[in-house]
Design brief:
The structure holds two protein chains of two kinds. Chain A is mostly beta strands. Chain A has strands at 4-7, 10-13, 19-25, 31-37, 43-51, 54-57, 65-66, 76-78, 87-94, 103-104, 108-112. In chain A, the strands form two sheets. In chain A, strands 2, 4, 5, 6, 9, 10 and 11 form a seven-stranded mixed β-sheet that branches. Chain A has a four-stranded antiparallel β-sheet with strand order 1-3-8-7, with no helix packed on it. In chain B, strands 2, 4, 5, 9, 10 and 11 form a six-stranded mixed β-sheet that branches.
């Protein structure tokens, strides 16, 4: 079944640790996105990609980085986690610039202590 | 910059009642989409309406779009407890490299 997967679902980690949030999709979508969302708040775009070897920063300044070496895989990395990074991170993909809607993963809820 | 703004921020109704949520936006769009989010999970795409459409239906959902007022509404008819969720509108400017911009969402609580 075509879908988009995020791991881990929950992560509690200490300050200063390096972490990578995984996102994979099986739909062959060229476009992928990372959004950050605090509880009950709006989504903020932090990174996006239009294809392999293409990555762009979004509207919200973020200390994270992304890579797109394979079409199906779009991991997000924090080199040194801080408590301010505590949030939910949502990965999404789309087939044609959003014209047919985004498919979202279930999210990773990150807590940095 | 914030594009979509939902209204109301929260809505509480009884099962069987209709729920109406509104979305306003600021710039021209190619299409507007509505999403549902259950309790901190990922968003689920509900319906897309293009800028040249005025109304669209999908099951118990009815979406309207008024481009002259830069606004849209989502109507859920005969609501159920399972409709309890946050609902977000998102706008697509339609440029080749544009991305969706989401509003702040409306929290809907449907009580049995």
């Amino acid at each position: 079944e075509a879908d988009i997967y995020q791991t881990p679902r929950y992560l509690v980690i200490g300050t200063g640790k390096k972490i990578t949030l995984e996102c994979s999709q099986t739909m062959g979508h060229d476009k992928m996105y990372w959004y950050q969302q605090d509880p009950g708040m709006e989504l903020h775009l932090i990174h996006y990609s239009y294809g392999v070897n293409s990555t762009e920063k979004g509207d919200l300044s973020s200390e994270s980085t992304v890579s797109r070496i394979r079409t199906e895989h779009f991991p997000l990395t924090l080199e040194s986690a801080r408590p301010s990074h505590t949030s939910q991170y949502l990965c999404a993909s789309s087939g044609d610039g959003g014209s047919y809607g985004y498919t979202f993963g279930s999210g990773t809820r990150l807590t940095v202590v | 910059s914030q594009q979509g703004e939902e209204d109301p921020q929260a809505l509480s109704i009884q099962e069987g009642e209709n729920a109406t949520m509104n979305c306003s936006y600021k710039t021209s769009i190619n299409n507007l989409q509505w999403y549902r989010q259950n309790s901190g999970r990922g968003l689920v795409h509900l319906i897309l309406i293009r800028s040249n459409e005025r109304e669209k239906h999908s099951g118990r959902l009815r979406v309207t779009l008024d481009t002259s007022k830069k606004s849209s509404s989502l109507l859920i008819t005969a609501s159920r407890a399972a409709d309890t969720a946050s609902y977000f509108c998102a706008t697509d400017a339609g440029r080749r490299y544009s991305t969706l911009t989401f509003g702040k969402g409306t929290m809907l609580l449907v009580s049995p």
